[in-house]
Amino acid sequence: MQKIKIVKMRFAYTFFISLLLFLVALPLVVQQPYILHVIIISMLLAYLCTSWSFVSGYARQVSLGHSVYVGIGAYSTALLYYHFGLNPILGLLAGIVSASAISILISVPSFKLGLRGPYYTFSTLALAEFFTYLFIGLRDLTGGELGLALPFKNNPFYLQFQGKIPYYYIMLSLLVTVIILANRIQNSKFGYYLFAIRNDESAAEACGINVFKTKIMASLLSAVLTSIGGFFYAIYYMYVTPESVFGLSLSFQIATTSLIGGATSWIGPTIGAIVAVPILEVTRATLGGKFIGFPLLFYGIVLVVMGRYLPGGIASRLFRDKERVR
Amino acid sequence: MPQRIILQVEGITKIFGGLRAVDDLSFELFENEILGLIGPNGSGKTTVVNIITGFLKPESGHVKYLGEDITLKKTHEIVSKGIVRTFQIMRPFRELTVLGNVTLGTLLFEKDVQKAKDKAIEILKKVKLEDKKDVLCSDLATPDQRKLELAKALALNPKVLILDEVVAGLSAQETSMILELIKELRDKSNISVVIIEHVVKAVMKIADRIIVINAGKKIAEGKPKDVINDPTVIKVYLGEKIRS
Amino acid sequence: MDISLILQSIINGILLGGIYMMISVGLNLIYGVMRIINYAQGEFLMIGMYIAYWIFTLFGINPFLGIPIVATVLYFSGMFLFNYVVYPILKKPYETQIMTFVALIYILQNIALIIWTADYRTVNMPETSIPVVIGNVYIPSGRLIILGIAIVISLIVLFFLTRTKTGLFIRASSQNPFAAELVGVDTKKVRALSMGIGIALAGIGGCILLPIYYCYPYVGVKLGIMGFIIITLGGLGSFYGAIIGSLLIGLVESLVGALYSSEFAMAIALVIYVTILILRPQGLLGTKSR
């Protein structure tokens, strides 16, 4: 029994290294833009899901409105570039600051002692909708529902490149960084404290853990990382609309994909993205107009079945952790 | 040499709806003593613990630790100052192993995870649970869960250890073992212990002093032999054999 | 500022409140008994709306008369859903429960999309535009009927909860499921019942919304979210809180929407929500331990 457990855990590292090597090598062999695009958006989703899992998985403070931070990162970048011609990196920094502020604004009242899970979850939902409406309403600034198309000047200094490959490697670096961060967190004091909070907040408090402060930090960390994902969205697509970055469908996508893969695992959300994106994207592209609705309907059914039979996600079956039940 | 007062509870009152769960209760805990807090079910014992450890705020009164007023402090602050409690209904972190649970405690004082784990193993040895360190808590039997609660409490470097119904449901042999452990802790580690029980026999064996509460009020205080002969106490426990 | 505009907005607000009542009372019932949030409540309203649309279009049955049909269909759907989808996950982790209800959102929205496409659908009921005139104010009679129905149904639910045996069981289960089991209440049946009623109420909300709004697969999204804001405002688990919260939010949304813009109205609702969270997190009528 013991041996099998260890083998399965090592499998997680092997899997990660293999995946990494595969992703690094892929563009040298495959050059079709569409395939690269699907992989880039898979990596973006994996990145967003991993960031989400820090607060919603490890600490069990489930956010159904994480798109708020994607939108903040995306619009900070987009607006500063579109209206003032500023380098996207400045947008990135502005996004990080704004995301931090919003995260604290919503998490401080939600995490007050005595308030339970649903309060935070609603707050995040309502916040995402609020920003969607806000940015649709501020038409002069944001272009309303039609959004902003960012002028492409093919200037690498502005992170604008011809072809997909540079974006591919940028996204890959971001993803790898966040996965390694996830692994480090799980093996750190902060990570242990998050899992304690996930299991039993009062008992965690009785272990000397400052539950309120820890939850705020998790929320902050997750928000900042997610906003960086939003920054990438803006520089990659060069087109930002309120619905696409702030919308609930993105929030739900992030949450459900992470849970499919396993939100308490450092590699789980990535697995979720690997499974979900190609399937959804490919069925959407091939089935097209007449079968619209079927992919997501199927997705919903899969979620219901998984929730009942595999609540810990794919990672809980694939990788057994010696120290934690998934 | 007069003993130092470690914990001072002064006139605390706690009201739930219309019910006075704790009514103007005062007592002291001296350094290095084992203090028994007994009373029938529902007399307010756990409420007192919740107030001391910051889970509840009293309507009036104070709790002082080494002279410092801790009445309104948050639980995690109180814990880091050295007052640790176990839970009557055991609350292990179910998704973690035995080792993981105790490590959560040692992490309070040791940031390095590996070192915290090593310290946790030392503590598990003290309660004789180290062979089960990789077992998931959901798979543990009751006596082992009790030992785990104790281990988690020890991991937090307590100066005051409050044990809430720690021997309930255990066999005689298991009970003696836990009681021996507690005595050893007091003797070797300079910990002051408050042991809360509604089963009097267990407390009689190790307590230096006993306090009896009923309906939130203190009705007797003193050495074990004196307390069990107190007529008010006998009346409260009418029907139960308390002479061993 | 035109007095009649303000009066109109107030009437509209109370009316909107009536519709919100159907959503939030249902949500509250489900939360009270099972301690879980039905994130798909808005989607059930949408389904109710479609059912009402089709019975009107195919059989000429007026949506108001169609209420019993919609309610029945959704009631049994709710019980079915409880037994096969919700009951299995009641003991599962919090995030799994959320995932299941979000899954229901995907399923319902996309079933609607596949079967009925994304086209907006409205019904034309000219008789509902006949205005009732009070002084300077013209109120379309349809709106008054809607408000009347919402009030009547809320009263029926209140009566049911407080005066019938089953209602008593429901309230007992929501206060203390363990104790309720001990005294012989079949909590599984009670929960199935609550789910059925909760969803039926959402469906009724859709029925009565149809005459004055348009139906499409995503109509439930914003309404559902307002539902969550309302039950938090009113107090999770409090029936009266849901009623009062619905009226309050309906009024605010209507007034702000008339005076400024509908987007601003949503923003104000959110500000109210956050303020409540900070100042009185248990909501207006909630209890601290809830």
Summarize the amount of helix of chain A as a percent range: over 70%
The protein's oligomeric status is: heterotrimer
Shape of chain C: globular
Q: Distance N terminus to C terminus of chain C?
A: 43 Å
Query: What is the strand tally of chain C?
Result: 2
Calculate the mean pLDDT score of chain C and round it. 87
Description:
The complex is a heterotrimer of chains A (326), B (244) and C (290). Chain A is mainly alpha-helical. Chain A has one domain (2-318): ABC transporter involved in vitamin B12 uptake, BtuC, CATH 1.10.3470. Chain A has helices at residues 2-29, 33-58, 67-84, 88-110, 117-137, 139-142, 165-186, 189-199, 201-205, 211-237, 242-246, 248-261, 268-287, 294-309, 314-318, and strands at 148-149, 239-240. Chain A has a two-stranded antiparallel sheet with strand order 1-2. With 244 residues, chain B is of the alpha/beta class. Chain B has a single domain, classed as P-loop containing nucleotide triphosphate hydrolases (Rossmann fold, 3-Layer(aba) Sandwich), CATH 3.40.50. Chain B has 9 helices and 10 strands. Chain B has helices at residues 45-52, 75-81, 98-106, 113-126, 142-155, 172-189, 200-206, 224-229, 231-236, and strands at residues 5-16, 19-30, 34-38, 60-65, 68-69, 83-85, 160-164, 192-197, 209-214, 217-222. In chain B, strands 6-7-8-3-9-10 form a 6-stranded mixed beta sheet, sandwiched between helices. Chain B has a 4-stranded antiparallel beta sheet with strand order 2-1-4-5, covered by helices on one side. Chain C is mainly α. Chain C has one domain. Chain C has 11 helices and 2 strands, in the order ααααββααααααα. Chain C has helices at residues 3-34, 41-59, 67-86, 94-116, 141-163, 165-175, 177-182, 187-209, 220-234, 239-259, 262-279, and strands at 131-134, 137-140. The N and C termini of chain C lie far apart (43 Å). The mean pLDDT of chain C is 87. At the A-C interface, helix 4, helix 5, helix 12 and helix 14 of A face helix 4, helix 9 and helix 11 of C.
